[in-house]
Design brief:
- It catalyses: tRNA(Gln) + L-glutamate + ATP = L-glutamyl-tRNA(Gln) + AMP + diphosphate; tRNA(Glu) + L-glutamate + ATP = L-glutamyl-tRNA(Glu) + AMP + diphosphate; tRNA(Glx) + L-glutamate + ATP = L-glutamyl-tRNA(Glx) + AMP + diphosphate.
- The protein is an alpha+beta fold and 614 residues long.
- It has 21 helices and 17 strands.
- Among the domains are: 158 residues, Rossmann fold (3-Layer(aba) Sandwich), CATH 3.40.50; 63 residues, Glutamyl-tRNA Synthetase, domain 2, CATH 1.10.1160.10; 60 residues, no CATH class; 96 residues, Arc Repressor Mutant, subunit A (Orthogonal Bundle).
- A hairpin with a 2-residue loop joins β2 and β3.
- α15 packs across α16 and α16 packs across α21.
Length: 614
């Protein structure tokens, strides 16, 4: 098998290690590996194409250097400071998939001492939606453009006036709120500002217009006057003949005088970018060497719409350049568009950033995360009592890019263990059924941390008042000491603070009710047992703090003082009087939670209820 120089392209290897990987072995080479069709295939030990050559074929997981030293170089080389960005479109509230993309960018920035930028791509202004429920879309998927066909379709149908995306009022502010709640606050953002702002694309229109004009002036772009009706006809004809719809580049062949005439007549128009053949391959941080000859399969894409707003392709290139973004980490659905973006960089005379495309986050069964399957938005998790660190832990645990894969990692541990060379191309399968277990682990960690515990107390105070309101008869249950005691006792048994305001734990906040018949069915010694409990509590008031072990012993002694009631039934009576329930935590734990005064109050009610019968 022979490869000629014209069909081989050199790979830029790391100057420090000059290594490539074949299987488990790392080989040092004297000259760059050669590649054919953007795949590393051969190297020449003699330093040229003459002499004996050894050919190797690498799979997709073997296209990157596996040296840890090379990893450090690759993330600092040539670009100076690491600057990454999360650039959602505020077409809805922050989605779990968007949070994961933001998280990887944040960790990357902090791992290499860089900056994490939040930029809102809000240039689709034509259709505002009053509510988010019907319009929330995945933050990085831009209306489902997940394959080449859809990319082409979107470019063809970026019409003169109407956009495909739908902005939700308040979504931009909510996205930043949720990032801060999740513990991944941006260093630069619409709210916080920064050196390279503004960070809302709708406030940067003049910059996109300047770039588009520059492309037209240099012949890299042209005015297109095709109507929406003509574009629809192109689409229909292509579909009828079984072809993929694409623009036929008609207007790139207009003479200058024809263009001037239409501009003078103020004919509505867009600006299209001239796609050229000969796309250079790029080395993706995750997927290795890639190249897509977009000119062979797509028509010239729109970069500036008739309303003066840019399309995604132009806006993101202009912004990444002007904001000095060094690394673009985004979803793998954008891998197919990267060659197009690189052509734009070349046409504008700008140096492109390093690209890394993250594998998709999918459901456990491999299906796409969808708004239709339920609440997978960060605000919903927040309302349900999910802890931000649990969400971050589960989304990284199901993926790759870390030196270990253990449960319970905090942010500083995620940053320390992050290793970009370990990010695989396989989609991350998310099992949300395990979120409760992740949350339980991180909840235990918070309860054991004084500062984080105070946050839990405040959160639980709000939930108690929201759920029970005026039903709370004793305001002492809202005191931090009382709630802290409950949290410590239930640690390891609950997955969320929201569990503590469920009916199962209502006895902690609201005094229960029960019927005389329920009590009578358990024993004829109800009055005697109630008196024994009150005496026990009076003996403990003002003394040492109650413990579960201590009360367990005391309760066994108490049960022996009854005449004909078994220990098991004595416990049922005490449980019913304290909680109105027939099951739950141990009776001793219930009593420690409530404390002597409240227990005495509840058993006095039992005695009052019995006295009304006679």
């Amino acid at each position: 098998m022979n490869f000629t120089p014209s069909r081989c392209l050199p790979i830029k290897t790391c100057k420090r290690c000059c290594q490539y990987s074949t299987g488990r072995n790392v080989h040092k080479v004297d000259t760059p590996v050669l590649l054919k069709n953007a795949l590393p295939l051969a190297f020449n030990r003699s330093g040229g194409h003459g002499g004996k050559q050894k050919y190797i074929r690498l799979n997709s997981s073997q296209k990157r250097c596996f040296s840890s030293e090379c990893d450090e170089v690759c993330h600092h080389h040539e670009h100076g400071e690491v600057r990454v960005r999360f650039a959602p479109s505020p077409t809805g509230f922050l989605h779990l998939g968007g949070l994961r993309t933001a998280l990887y960018n944040y960790i990357y920035a902090k791992k290499y001492g860089g900056s994490f930028i939040l930029r809102m791509e809000d240039t689709d202004q034509s259709r505002l939606v009053p509510g988010a429920a019907e319009s929330i879309e995945d933050m990085l998927e831009w209306a489902g453009r997940t394959d080449l066909t859809t990319h082409i379709y979107t470019d063809l149908h970026t019409d003169l006036h109407t956009d495909q995306s739908r902005l939700v009022p308040g979504a931009a502010e909510s996205i930043e709120d949720m990032l801060e709640w999740a513990g991944i606050p941006p260093d630069e953002s619409p709210r916080g500002g920064g050196q390279y702002g503004p960070y809302l694309q709708s406030q940067r229109l003049s910059l996109y217009s300047q770039a588009a004009d520059s492309l037209v002036q240099t012949g890299k772009a042209y005015h297109c006057f095709c109507s929406q009706q003509r574009l629809e006809l192109l689409k229909r004809d292509a579909l009828r003949s079984g072809q993929t719809p694409r623009y036929d580049n008609r207007c790139r062949h207009l003479r200058p005088d024809q263009v001037e005439e239409k501009l003078d007549q103020k004919v509505p128009h867009v600006i299209r970018f001239r796609l050229e053949s000969g796309v250079e391959p790029f080395n993706d941080l995750v997927f290795g060497w890639n190249r897509h000859e977009v000119a062979q399969v797509e028509g010239d894409p729109v970069v500036m719409k008739a309303d003066g707003f840019p399309t995604y392709h132009l806006a993101n290139v202009v912004d990444d350049h002007l904001m000095k973004v060094s690394h673009v980490l985004r979803g793998s659905e954008w891998l197919i568009s990267t060659s197009k973006h690189l052509l734009l960089y070349r046409a504008l005379g700008w140096k492109p950033p390093v690209f890394g495309h993250l594998p998709l986050l999918l459901n456990r069964d491999g299906s796409k995360l969808s708004k239709r399957q339920g609440d997978i938005y960060i605000q919903s998790f927040q309302r349900s009592g999910a802890l931000p660190e649990a969400l971050l832990d589960i989304t990284t645990h199901c993926g790759s890019g870390f030196n270990s894969n253990r449960v319970g990692r905090k942010m500083e541990e995620l940053i320390a263990e992050f290793n970009p060379s370990k990010i695989t191309t396989h989609s991350a399968l998310l099992d949300l059924g395990k979120l409760a277990e992740f949350n339980k682990i991180h909840l235990q960690q918070r309860i054991d941390d004084a500062v984080q515990r105070d946050w839990l107390v405040r959160d639980l105070q709000g939930r108690i008042q929201e759920v029970y309101g005026t039903q709370v008869q004793d305001q002492d249950v809202l005191q931090p000491d009382y709630i802290t005691r409950v949290l410590h006792l239930r640690k390891g048994h609950i997955s969320s603070v929201s569990d503590l305001v469920s009916s199962e734990y209502s006895y902690l906040w609201v005094r229960p009710s029960f019927s005389d018949q329920q009590m009578a069915a358990l024993s004829s010694e109800i009055q005697h047992i109630a008196t024994l409990v009150i005496r026990l509590m009076e003996g403990l008031k003002g003394g040492e703090e109650l413990t579960v072990d201590q009360l367990s012993v005391e309760l066994k002694t108490l049960a022996k003082k009854t005449s004909n009631t078994k220990y098991r039934d004595v416990m049922k009576i005490i449980r019913l009087a304290l909680s109105g329930l027939q099951q739950g935590p141990s009776v001793a734990e219930m009593m420690v939670s409530l404390g002597p005064s409240e227990i005495t109050h509840r058993f006095n009610r039992v005695l009052q209820q019995l006295s009304r019968q006679h």
